[in-house]
Amino acid sequence: MNLTREILKEHGSKQAHKIARYASSSPLTFKLLIDTYLTGPYRVTQRASWPISIVGEAHPKLIRPHLKKLLDFMVRDDVHDAVKRNTMRVLQFVEIPKRNHAQVIDICFELLQSKREAVAIKCFAMTVLSRVIDDKPELQRELKIILEDQLPYSTAAFKSRATKLIKRLPGV
């Protein structure tokens, strides 16, 4: 399958799932999708992020060898919101190695505190962050403060997820 051609052919759920099925057939085909995603161009990267998130949810172990590249890529200034959204979405399902925790924590706190980020990106970031700081009470307190500060000005989706998360945080 020519991934670039398939990605550009159409943009929708059916096509994203078709590409994800192909890419998840082996670590090699998944690497091809990751390489296509990372090399672009912009529209290819944007659209490839959806099949990557589909594969990551169904087969989280396929993501792990590419985690550092995905994290480094998503913080670039020129990436589409879809890249951030789908990267954060997939991180909810992946066991993040300790060696990547500091980078993930920094990214998630930055996304949560940004006034420019879309609500979906922030919601996924708060979930990922809550998993990574499970054993770090000082960061749990910081997360709680940030979420509580944003609650009065947030959308229903943000409020719902933040309220549930605050209740699950240990007595911080």
If you had to describe this structure to a student in words, what would you say it looks like?
With 172 residues, this protein is mainly alpha-helical. It has two domains: 1-95; 98-172, no CATH class. The chain contains eleven helices and no strands. It has helices at residues 3-9, 13-23, 27-39, 42-58, 60-63, 67-74, 81-91, 101-113, 119-132, 137-150, 156-168. Helix 3 (27-39) runs antiparallel to helix 4 (42-58), helix 4 runs parallel beside helix 7 (81-91) and helix 8 (101-113) packs antiparallel against helix 9. The radius of gyration is 16 Å and the shape is globular. 33% of the residues are buried. The model has no long low-confidence stretch (mean pLDDT 94).
Put the structure in a nutshell.
This is HEAT repeat domain-containing protein. With 172 residues, the protein is mainly α. It has helices at 3-9, 13-23, 27-39, 42-58, 60-63, 67-74, 81-91, 101-113, 119-132, 137-150, 156-168.
Low-confidence stretches: none
Strand content: under 5%
Structural class by secondary-structure content: mainly alpha
Could you state the order of secondary-structure elements as H and E? HHHHHHHHHHH
Number of helices: 11
How would a crystallographer describe the biggest sheet?
none
Approximate shape: globular
Structural domains: how many:
2
The overall pLDDT, averaged over residues, is 94
Distance between the termini: 51 Å
Radius of gyration: 16 Å
Total count of strands: 0
Amount of helix: over 70%
